[in-house]
């Protein structure tokens, strides 16, 4: 039996216009971005796009045969839904190639008001099986779904074969170890959550304190990590902190590794996914340029010879050098991680 | 809060058992509550990990019919993160059986909503379906929800806006360790030096989960397999009049290994206005320092872990 290999599209992050241009220039097929409000899951200070910037970004991308997806992937609260619906309206008006949505009330809104705008299901919807995906397809006419980072490659292959949808998976960057959209750890500690506020472990709650030569990291006053003087400290995401459980101290939930799937790229091609997503809208244009360049080369090499493909050492080194924890994992994609 | 004013009738629900227990213990737990409590609703079924459902659905259906015979409403709860064909089939079988027994399921994933809606089985939209807005609530009703459990982090004052003009029954997570998140990784197995594949059902050794605390020894979380819960139980027992005013008609008490029937008794007394809010709160605390025992930050739109004095 011969295996079919699908060459997936590279879906690249942009937190601002310079990052969008860097992603397109470095060979990204598609850029995803969000408006500067709580309507997207990377609602960080100094990040994201105004209407004018989205317009310019879409022009820049379309002139170079690249696409732009607009993320509207948090849940509106009960009162003022207009930042969410107007984000969808503007995305449609400016000619975005798709909107990425998690909330079904917003999916229904987009379907009714902008039937010709492609609707993608956000990872924030936590749809990790084909039964859920077909429901979203049937009821809300979605064309693509981004899978949560809790599935093995076998499970992804099965979803690709049984689902009528295009499937997009996370390939690189920060690793959510929890089911996105079903995690309230951040609001439990800080009051702000990805679902309601578009943030996890927000910067305003982070404090670094020197304590007898060690660096204490506090999130809203709660100690979530301690670093030795010679130890590199990554951004203090709650689930990657050090805690004590069952008499053992350490990274109880996950070490501060980044996701890197370069080594399993032929399996990803064989699974039949349509999109490879690179995380990192909060990162700089230099990071985006470097990571997208590496991935562009790797995807092209794999597409030309999937059997002979080996992840090059310099690609791995380049991704490790820019990753937040300085080390990588294939996460849930491989069974032994679980 | 004046406890002499009659509250609208509130139903008390025993939520699905979230911890991993052997079947005999689960059976004893639920059956004893039919004798020791007058809870109106029993949710029954595995939500967290399919590896705990070792002997299929038959024994669960038998227990469900025993609970039904005691005159209570029974709801069959389903898995929160199904990813394999086996897990989907488990949901289909359970939903079909629920239909035959004229029971509803609790949908904790859109897969369960899909299956229930296809089979014409009523469902309760569980707390992980993220009903944060009236639009979401309407979508759930449109697909056959008979009741909606609100997301845990929603501020109580927002509840009336979520309900709007809808007459659907709204349930509020009113007491217990908060189920904060799910992962593909089993943290109980990990803390025993095992993988999820080779877990040997070690969660059966930890009926109340495993405590996780900070490096300076402050309480934080409870490990429950692939789920992380709050270490502190949440309680809203002292806000039942306000919750009733906001439109909540059902109160969920999440099971734990000890003190369940006492907690249910305190909730019933408070819901009936037989004791004051303060007396009820002292009752569930059982002599423990309230602000060091419970959390209620989510009720007030604050950090979930804090205790806010009235």
Q: Can you put this structure into words, describing what you see?
A:
The complex is a heterodimer of chains A (338) and B (310). With 338 residues, chain A is an alpha/beta fold. Chain A folds into 2 domains: 9-175 and 257-337, Aldolase class I (TIM Barrel, Alpha-Beta Barrel); 185-250, no CATH class. Chain A contains 11 helices and 15 strands. Chain A has helices at 17-25, 51-63, 82-93, 104-113, 130-140, 153-162, 185-190, 194-197, 265-271, 285-304, 313-322, and strands spanning 9-13, 30-33, 67-72, 98-101, 119-121, 144-146, 166-174, 206-211, 214-219, 222-227, 243-245, 248-250, 258-260, 275-278, 328-329. In chain A, helix 1 (17-25) packs parallel to helix 10. Chain A is globular. The model of chain A has no long low-confidence stretch (mean pLDDT 92). With 310 residues, chain B is α/β, with parallel strands linked by helices. Chain B has one domain (11-178, 232-300): Aldolase class I (TIM Barrel, Alpha-Beta Barrel), CATH 3.20.20.70. Chain B has an 8-stranded parallel β-barrel, surrounded by 5 helices. In chain B, helix 5 links the parallel strand 5 and strand 6. The radius of gyration of chain B is 18 Å and the shape is globular. Chain B starts with 10 loop residues before the first strand and ends in a 17-residue tail after the last helix. The model of chain B has no long low-confidence stretch (mean pLDDT 95). Chains A and B meet through helix 4, helix 5, helix 7, strand 10 and strand 11 of A and helix 3, helix 4, helix 5, strand 7 and helix 7 of B.
